[in-house]
Amino acid sequence: MALLDVERLSVEYQTLQGTVRAVRDVSFSLPPGRALGLVGESGCGKTTLARALIGVLPRNARITEGAVRFEGTDLLRLPADQFNDYRWRRIAMVPQAAMDSLDPVQRVGDQMVETIVLRGNLTRAAAADRARELFAMVGLQPDRLRLYPHELSGGMKQRAVIAMALALRPPLVIADEPVTALDVIVQHQVLQTLRDLREALGVSLLLITHDISVVASLCDDVAVMYAGRIVESGTVRQVFAEPRHPYTMGLRNAFPSLRAEQEHLVPIEGYPPDLAHPPQGCAFTARCPFAIPRCWEEDPVLRAEGDGQEAACHRAHEAPVLRVQAAEAFARLAGDEIRSAPREAC
Amino acid sequence: MPMLEVANLQKHYTLHGGMMASVFGGRRVVHALNGVSFNVEQGQSLGLAGESGCGKTTTAKLILKLLRPTSGAIRFAGRDISDLEGADLLGYRRQVQFVFQNPYEALNPRFTILRAMLEPLVIHGIGASALNRVERVADALRQVHLDPPEAFFMKYPHHLSGGQLQRVVIARALLVEPRLLVADEPVSMLDVSVRAGVLNLMRDLTRRHGLTTIYISHDLALIRYMCTTTAVMYLGTICEIGSTAEVIGRPKHPYTQALVAAVPDPDPTRAERVVKISDTVPTPLHIPVGCPFADRCPMVMDICRTVRPALRAIEGVRVACHLYEAPEEVH
Description:
The complex is a heterodimer. In chain A, 33% of the residues lie in helices and 21% in strands. Chain A is built from eleven helices and twelve strands.
């Protein structure tokens, strides 16, 4: 049984511009011990989705349909006090800008002990021991617990927040952009810590990020989100090596790599649709070089494409051919013909 | 003659920290830049890479004359910019344009796009008539693929997306026909699918106009894509500078090696690399006597803690590291 099973989840925001359908009919499941990366651009609904899972949506948001089954229990049907028991204990979240989520006027250790005492019913002494143990686990000197947040560097704060999320040994951790604001070397080391922790604790991870290279280095599976929907999912290797959705193909060509031979980056022309007025057909149609008339009319559903890989595209069965044409097709759409390499090859 | 010469540039800030400091006199100095020198030739594209706090943005601000250096000189086309005033300064500002990280803050929220773009033309007295200026704005918008330009004239910044705004900022910078363009993290606020478009645009336009460019970024992949020359900065100094192919493809300085190895790869089949340096970022408050990287360097030697290494030519690049000195010099 999957640890987390999300079924047909939809979330809407009421705004002055009308109803914004931020998450539309999203389903995925996360088996125990796996790490799933949810990637997408800003506004694609990934953070809304994460917040819906742990029931901390802003006031103007509403879950319109769907189920979030965690260990078989639909969290959305639970009374508020019972749902509360799941947070921290069963599902912990490392929020976006986690570094700023520490209380600036409290010692880091005190904040941790407080959380553990409050949520885990431990004595203060036991909680203090646990805090020291957790700090060591994320690679921080336990004596740093006595420091205030401003005395820690960005990377240390991020580790402290990760330690806090792990405090009550939750089987699932949701991390929203856990390394985004960090410098590259610190980022590398925090990623390494997360990898080690996954191995040591067997914790499942739902990682939310815009950075496909973070997913590539940390996750087993990936789900690509676009305009409130999952458009493609599968193992990281499958999806990155053999993308089946044109958006994923486009992302791959738009991303500068430090090591791959890459003559020319190809942008994805245009911008995501306004989700206050989602288009009738596939949301990617206007930016897709492979769109056919059907795409404008009928929104494709996420379908299995073999080997556990899924894609929401009317032309997914043609993926091997489209993949070859993708770079050129996207470039043509952007009015940006492929040119020769500008720099000496490195 | 290089277009831009930066010679032994230093920028220090004195912290006037609180009551205790004023009573006990402990004046602290932030050493943002500690002797940075490089040349940029006409038509070259230089990338300044490094982590936050390494001084790359300070360097940009000094070049743009938004800050005054503590010491050292910047010469543009042979002329020292430190004493530029009045019309000379205005002329310099026209020749050196910039694109900053946040396009949402670069444009006045209460100006329409047309007005925001007419402003530099008026300031620099470009264009024979109002009509001619509007035509120039329209041309510039077309060049950045905001077409038809008339559709954008009466829009306000909040009507546009980040990618469109950054295109406006680029168009505005090019409007006054500069010779040098300084771009500080030009796409880091933009989404991945939009970034490539803005980068390609900048590359095409700067090449078409024969512009010299300086890109400042923490993102080595971006610098590899955009720049022919790369300088890696650490704690207010340049630790390695040379052709991008060499510096990123075959890094020599232990810091550059760590930086290159730490970049995660979008290809999951590439093995993770091991980075063996501590993630404690040093503070520019206490600059070590020797090599600034000595505390974190996995190859550190005794000499590194006492003697600051100078940039010296090794295999086509210049590296500031004692490892590459002849053995007799080390002992």
